[in-house]
Structure formats: C-alpha cells, structure tokens
C-alpha cells in the first residue's frame, strides 16, 4: 500500500481538490491501495486559531465562521451531484454548529486553553477529510472518512503532543484489518490523549500522521503532495536557476530542511526513515513531474553536492580566552546552559587551538544567551580567563549539503573561491566531521549573491550567468546589444552562458531590470522606465543589487566613468571597456586600476582599446607572460587615418574622406581625437605600459598630420570648416607621395621604452605599404620573434568589429 498525503494548498480550492481526486483515483485504479491523509483547506487552520483567539478576547468571530462554512459549501455545490448534496451539507453544518457552540463557550469563559485550541483547530482536518471522502465516494463507493484522533494516541502535551507508539500501532493495525477494501481519508495533524481529548501533533503534523500510518502499515512509499516540484537545489525565490532534485538521502533531506528548505519537516519523517520507506515529494499541480525521492541511499548524481540551503538572519556569539584551553568541561557547561534555557544553537565552530568558540543562535535568543554566559562564567571573566562574549547580528548561514562531498576533494576550495571572487566576506566556517555539510557565516546583505554564486560554482554543468551593467549606448553600445541579442540562444544552447544586461545608461537616461533587458527592445524599455542618468547613482545601484558574476561595461568615450573603476573593482565587479581613457591617463592611475583588479580577483579587459576587435592586447599579454621580451613594436593603429590615406585618391577631397570615415563609424565621437593623433597616442601608451614601461603621455613624440589651423579649431564644426579650407595642404601631400610611387602612413613605434608617432612615406618594399580600408597592422619584434616579427593585421575600427571585441572580452570574464 501507499500513503498519499496532501497539504493545505492541495485542498485549497475546487480546482485543486479536483486534481487531488484524479491523483487518488489513478493510484486506486492502479491497485496501489492508497491511504489518503489530508490537511485542512488552506487558510482554515489560521482562521480557526484566529476565531478562537477573537472569541477569548470577546471579539466577534461569526463572519469568519461564515467564511469557513462558505468555503466548504462551495466545494460541495461544485463537486457533489445535487441529489447527494443534502446529507453532506447537513453533516458539515452540524460540525460547524459544534464549532460555534465551542467558540461561544470560549467567549463566555474569556479563556482559551491549549486543550480548547487543539479541539477547535481539529475542525479544519475533520471538515476537509469528510468532504473529500464524500466527493470521492461518488466514483469510488468504498471511500471512507476516518477521524484519526481515534487511532493516533498521544500524551497530554496539547499543541505538540507526543505519540503513544505502542497503542497507536495497535489501533491502526486493527483499523486496517477491519477496512481492508476501503479507501480511507484520514485526518492529518490530530490525535487524542487517553481521556479521548483531541490533541495536535505540532509543526508538520499531517506529514507525521502520514509517516505513522505508512510505517505501521509497511507502505511501499509515502507521497507528500504539495505545491512545488519536490526539494530543490536552493531556494527558488532567490536562486532562479534552482532545480528539482531527483534523489536525496534521508540525511541530506534533513540537512537541507534544517537550513531552510521548508518542503518537509524532517522530524516528522523519522517513522519512515526507521523502516527505510521512501518518501516522495510531488506537486499536485504538476502530477506528471516525478518529484524528489527521499530514501536511505544518497544515490548517483551528476553534481558533487545536492543542494545549498541557508538561514537568513542569525546572531553569532564569539567566546575567546585561555580559560577554555584544555578544559573539557567548558563547552559542556556552555551548551548545557543554553540547552537548559531552551536556546537553540544553530551552528558551532571551535578553533583547534581551543582558544575560541563561535556559535550561532536566533536573534531573539542572542542577548539572553550573552547574559546567561556572563552569569555562568562570572569567575572566569573576572580572572581574565575569558573575554566578554562578543555578539554580532545581521548574519546569515549558507550551507552546501551532500553525502558525496566526502568522496570528492576540493569542495571547500570551490565554495570559498566562489565566495571570494564575488567579494563575500566569510565570518566563520563549520564543517561537520561527517563531511556532508559545510556551513559558512556571511553578512545578511551578501546572502542572495552568495547563494547564486555558489549555485553557479557547484552546478557548473548548468549555465553561467553574467550580469552586465552597460554605460554608453551610442555606436558601439547599441551594436553590442544587437550582437548580444542575436547570439543569445547560441550562447545559451551551445556554451551554457547567459548574458543578462541588467543596467543601462547613456548620458540622458538610465534604467535597471534585474531579469535582464529585452535586447530586441531595450530602447523602449529604457525610454519608458528609465530615470534621469547619473553615473554615481547608477554605480551605487549596481553595487546595491549585489548580483553575482557582475560586469561593468564602459562603452562611452567619457573620462568620468574611469574615475569609478577603482571603486568598481573594490566591489568585486569586473570591467570591460573600449574606452581608452582609464588606461591612457596618468601612469599611476593605470597601475592602481590594474593592481586593484588583481587584488580583488576580478577582470579588467580592454582588448578594443587597441585595434578594435583585433587580438593585440591579448597577444602582447601572452608574449609577456610566456617570458618573451619585446624589442620593438611598429604599428599603424588609427583605423580612421588608415582609411583616409587609403581613400584619399582621385577626385575625393580630404574633407570628404574624413566625413566618410566618420559616417562609417571609424572615428572617435570627436574626430579631432583621430586626426590630431591623440587616439593613436593613447593606444601606443597602453601598449607600452602593457609591455612594462611606466611612461607618461608627455614623453610620446607625436608628429602632426594636420595644418596648424585645424589643430587650433575649438569645436568639431570649426574643425571641419578649417579642414575644407586646407584642401591644398593635403593635395600637396598626396601628389608628392604619388610622384615618388609611395603611400602615406601614420606609424607608431615603441623601442627602448620610447614612443614616437610620425607621418611617413613608404615604398612598396615596406611591409606596411599594402593596407586597405580601415586596416591596422602591428608587428612585434621580440626575443623569440626576432628575424621575422609577429604580425597582426586587419580592420581596426568600426562598430561591428569593436562591439565584437567587447563581446569577446565579456564572455571571457571569470573564465
Ligand atoms: N568606433 C570605433 O571603431 C571604436 C573602436 C575602439 C574603441 N572605440 C571606443 O568606443 C567608445 C564609444 O564610441 P562610440 O562611437 O560608440 O561613441 P558614441 O558617441 O556613439 O556613444 C557614446 C555613448 O556614451 C554615452 N555617454 C557619454 N558619457 C556618459 C556618461 N557619463 N554616462 C553614461 N553614458 C555616457 C553617450 O550618451 C552615448 O550613448 C569610445 O571610447 C571609443 O574610443 C571605438
Ligand atoms: N577611432 C579609432 C577607433 C578604434 O579605436 C580609430 O580610428 O582607430
Ligand atoms: Na584589439
């Protein structure tokens, strides 16, 4: 036989009761000989308690009573054929009348004992089981309502009664013998004492009823039907990627439940554990889902741990002092003291020097615990053998759980790596010697981030989610969004990477969406929901959201964002940027940013600072890391100027070609940065610094392309106006080159720690002669690439290739 237990939400409405009936009928038809245990309809137990309390206080309870009646009557009217309704309504009405008499009695006495409370609460289960049995009777005539208080016998501990095992077993066995062919609907939660007074079984009581019946009757399984898909890897309200666990051992279920998974209350399951009866957690509203089997063996799993659970908001007390060293009685005294005062100790850790003990308790108990300790250890405190206990509030416990941990090394390493990388400070650690639980204490405000980060770390075959905060939605930013949108499915399906852009700002507006903007429609979302942009607020909000695997992308050309990078790294957030300003400012700033990122274990990626998407920064880094020595770098690193000199031929005027370069998205937002050489200079400076030279921009020898009049222009418009006038200057340059069969190139060099950038005329023997479009070229002459340099060449400007470079940096974050 099988026990099927349905919780309150499963019998909460007409629809859910219909679902219950189908599940029961299916089991009955399959010959599983089910025994059904039902809770009260959802909300009814609370309503009953409220009515009882109201009555005792002399407040009216009639409206609530009517509400209770209506909810049951509605089910009768919808689910019982009219001709059978009357006797059922009558019996329910009699029960409700009894209840009313009791409540009236309480109102007269103005007194509510635990005994009366149990009696009143019992009406919830009695009504629901009677009702559902009657509905089922229409299809399965042997359906029978059973009031379990005649079979579950307990002591007098009303509200939390203890089972009289021997007697209950006898009575249940006798019940089974006389009802062999019946389909029983048994009230959960209630029992009675030896005088026949109704008692209740405390927290999780209906599960307990199911476990007791299952164990006495040697059930093949006890199915707990609820409103979730079994036990999950983590709290799904916090960890969106949490998934249902197919198998857990009893021990694992205990650990996960202890730390938060509220699906079952394990102490109630002990009768089932003792007989090794599997408990199956299933979803009434998704009956085809197999749910979670809790059994004796932990079972095979693809993952090293089973789940992550947590307790939010605990207080931690720390005791230190020489008085504890080698004193075996000390912790005994401490914990006996706490137990005597019914203070539940949630977690304990002791340093191996025995010099300190740290333990966690519920915040409501914390101050009392400290005072108790001060009293108990007054002598030790006076003699300075113990320091005053230190209390800290606002903490949380996170625990990874799984029996397979003990056979897998590196588990705590993985846990602490995930926490450390996300800047989560671990305050205390506890690992049971059984090795199926490692617990850490962290700050409350880090809990959500920690749960998600640790979930990612242990369920790595699942997708990695990057949370992106992007500023700048111009040429590059908007192209990046388009690319991310197009690649979304591929990244997810083929690479298990999900990129969520959760914050967007341009210079006008900013907006947030923790679920990720729809990148097919981000403009509208930002317009409609965004607020006025403010970078400080944007970054504050990014920090406050405290999401795991967070990346800040700077797709602006502004200086302001770079002033926040250090703070961002300190918040353990990586930075990806195509903006060159941070790396090309003062060397001290460059150094500080790189050092801070390293210290906090986050990434600072800026491949597109040099040659857009071409692999240049990466190549240089690899050369350096593998111990090569850079002898010389020669490069053409202005896509704009490259394009201009490659297209400044025939009739086209210099002015027109520059305009065209801007249209094609090659130029900086301010094209004077390109033509004036600043942009190129920045790139050379970054390369030189990455190659190990602590140089400043002042020391770069920068040759001009432009006539003085253009250089002096004070606005972009004025610049273009001057450019129009300078036709002759550029034509002269062009014809001179043509005369000598040469091309004009703007070339940067780094040699002996010195950077120079100059306009040169090259003949066709020079390797930089043949370039087209916006091509960049860079040649690294190194100790290992001495005779023939390592050359990278290709388009070095443009929105698509730049956004693609940012994209590549982004997916490499945390890799
Ligand atoms: N075009 C290329 O080929 C190329 C190649 C490599 C690198 N880059 C770099 O890309 C960056 C962006 O270039 P673009 O052409 O997209 O510029 P753009 O002018 O088209 O866009 C700049 C964006 O930044 C926003 N912005 C400016 N200041 C801001 C602030 N304080 N807070 C929030 N948003 C702010 C603007 O509103 C705009 O959305 C530049 O740093 C450029 O050097 C460009
Ligand atoms: N404006 C830049 C873009 C690439 O950084 C260029 O023309 O090279
Ligand atoms: Na690059």
UniProtKB/TrEMBL annotation:
GO terms for molecular function: aspartate kinase activity; homoserine dehydrogenase activity. Gene3D superfamilies: Acetylglutamate kinase-like, Aspartokinase, catalytic domain, Dihydrodipicolinate Reductase, domain 2, NAD(P)-binding Rossmann-like Domain, VC0802-like. The keyword ATP-binding applies. Coiled coil: none annotated. It catalyses: L-homoserine + NADP(+) = L-aspartate 4-semialdehyde + NADPH + H(+); L-aspartate + ATP = 4-phospho-L-aspartate + ADP. Residues 400-478 form the ACT domain. Pathway: Amino-acid biosynthesis; L-methionine biosynthesis via de novo pathway; L-homoserine from L-aspartate: step 1/3; Amino-acid biosynthesis; L-methionine biosynthesis via de novo pathway; L-homoserine from L-aspartate: step 3/3; Amino-acid biosynthesis; L-threonine biosynthesis; L-threonine from L-aspartate: step 1/5; Amino-acid biosynthesis; L-threonine biosynthesis; L-threonine from L-aspartate: step 3/5. This is Bifunctional aspartate kinase/homoserine dehydrogenase I. It comes from Sphingobacterium tenebrionis.
């Amino acid at each position: 036989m099988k026990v099927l237990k349905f919780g309150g939400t499963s019998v909460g409405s007409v629809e859910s009761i219909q679902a219950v009936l189908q599940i029961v009928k299916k089991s009955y038809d399959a010959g599983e000989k089910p025994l059904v245990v039902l809770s009260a309809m959802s909300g009814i137990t609370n309503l009953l308690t409220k009515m009882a309390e109201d009555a005792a206080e002399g407040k009216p309870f009639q409206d609530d009573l009517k509400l209770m009646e209506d909810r049951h009557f509605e089910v009768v009217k919808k689910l019982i054929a009219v001709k059978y309704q009357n006797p059922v309504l009558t019996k329910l009405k009699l029960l409700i009348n009894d209840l009313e008499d009791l409540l009236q009695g309480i109102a007269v006495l103005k007194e509510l004992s635990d005994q009366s409370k149990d009696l009143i609460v019992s009406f919830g289960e009695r009504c629901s089981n009677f009702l559902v049995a009657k509905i089922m009777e229409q299809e399965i005539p042997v359906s029978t309502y059973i009031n379990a208080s005649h079979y579950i016998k307990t002591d007098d501990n009303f509200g939390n009664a203890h089972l009289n095992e021997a007697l209950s077993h006898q009575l249940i066995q006798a019940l089974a013998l006389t009802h062999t062919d019946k389909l029983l609907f048994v009230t959960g939660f209630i029992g009675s004492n030896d005088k026949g007074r109704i008692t209740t079984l405390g927290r999780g009581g209906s599960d307990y009823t199911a476990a007791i019946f299952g164990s006495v009757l040697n059930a093949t399984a006890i199915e707990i039907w609820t409103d979730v898909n079994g036990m999950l890897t983590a709290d799904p309200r916090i960890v969106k990627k949490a998934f249902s666990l197919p198998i857990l051992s009893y021990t694992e279920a205990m650990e996960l439940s202890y730390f938060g998974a509220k699906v079952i209350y394990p102490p109630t399951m002990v009768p089932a554990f003792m007989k090794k009866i599997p408990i199956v957690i299933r979803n009434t509203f998704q009956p085809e889902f197999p749910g979670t089997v809790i059994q004796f063996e932990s079972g095979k799993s693809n993952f090293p741990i089973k789940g992550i659970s947590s307790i939010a908001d605990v207080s931690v007390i720390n005791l230190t002092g020489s008085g504890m060293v080698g004193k075996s009685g000390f912790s005994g005294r401490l914990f006996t003291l706490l137990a005597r005062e019914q203070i539940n100790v949630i977690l304990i850790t002791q340093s191996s020097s025995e010099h300190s003990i740290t333990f966690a308790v519920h915040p409501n108990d914390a101050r009392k615990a400290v005072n108790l300790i001060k009293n108990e250890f007054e002598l030790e405190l006076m003699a300075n053998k113990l320091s005053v206990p230190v209390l800290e509030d606002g903490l949380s416990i996170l625990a990874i759980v799984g029996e397979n941990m003990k056979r897998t090394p590196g588990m705590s390493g993985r846990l602490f790596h995930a926490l450390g990388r996300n800047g989560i400070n671990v305050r205390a650690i506890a690992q049971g010697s059984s090795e199926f639980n490692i617990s850490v204490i962290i700050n409350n405000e880090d809990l959500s981030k920690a749960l998600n980060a640790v979930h990612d770390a242990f369920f790595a075959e699942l997708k990695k989610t990057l949370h992106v905060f992007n500023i700048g939605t111009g040429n590059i930013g908007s192209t990046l969004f388009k690319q991310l949108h197009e690649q979304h499915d591929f990244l997810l399906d083929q690479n298990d990477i999900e990129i969520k852009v959760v914050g967007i700002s341009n210079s006008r507006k900013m907006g947030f969406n923790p679920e990720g903007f729809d990148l097919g429609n981000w403009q509208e979302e930002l317009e409609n929901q965004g607020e006025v942009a403010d970078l400080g607020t944007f970054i504050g909000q990014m920090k406050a959201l405290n999401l795991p695997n967070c990346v800040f992308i700077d797709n602006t050309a502004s200086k302001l964002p770079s002033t926040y990078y250090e703070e961002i790294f300190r918040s353990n957030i990586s930075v990806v940027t195509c903006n060159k300003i941070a790396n090309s400012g003062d060397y001290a700033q460059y150094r500080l940013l790189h050092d801070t990122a390293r210290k906090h274990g986050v990434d600072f990626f800026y491949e597109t600072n040099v040659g857009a998407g071409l692999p240049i920064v990466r190549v240089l880094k690899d050369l350096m890391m593998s111990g090569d020595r850079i002898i010389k770098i020669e490069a053409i690193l202005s896509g704009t100027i490259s394009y201009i000199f490659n297209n400044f031929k025939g009739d086209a005027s210099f002015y027109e070609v520059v305009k065209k370069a801007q249209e094609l998205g090659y130029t900086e937002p301010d094209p004077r940065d390109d033509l004036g050489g600043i942009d190129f200079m920045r790139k050379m400076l970054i390369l030189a610094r990455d190659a190990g030279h602590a140089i400043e921009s002042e020391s770069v020898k920068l040759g001009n392309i432009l006539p003085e009049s253009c250089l002096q222009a004070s606005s972009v418009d004025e610049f273009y106006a001057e450019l129009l006038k300078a036709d002759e200057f550029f034509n002269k340059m062009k014809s001179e080159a043509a005369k000598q069969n040469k091309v004009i190139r703007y070339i940067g060099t780094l040699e002996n720690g010195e950077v120079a950038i100059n306009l040169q005329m090259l003949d066709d023997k020079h390797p930089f002669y043949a370039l087209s479009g916006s091509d960049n070229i860079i040649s690294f002459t190194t100790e290992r690439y001495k005779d023939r340099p390592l050359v990278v060449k290709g388009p070095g400007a443009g929105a698509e290739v730049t956004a693609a470079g940012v994209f590549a940096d982004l997916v490499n974050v945390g890799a």
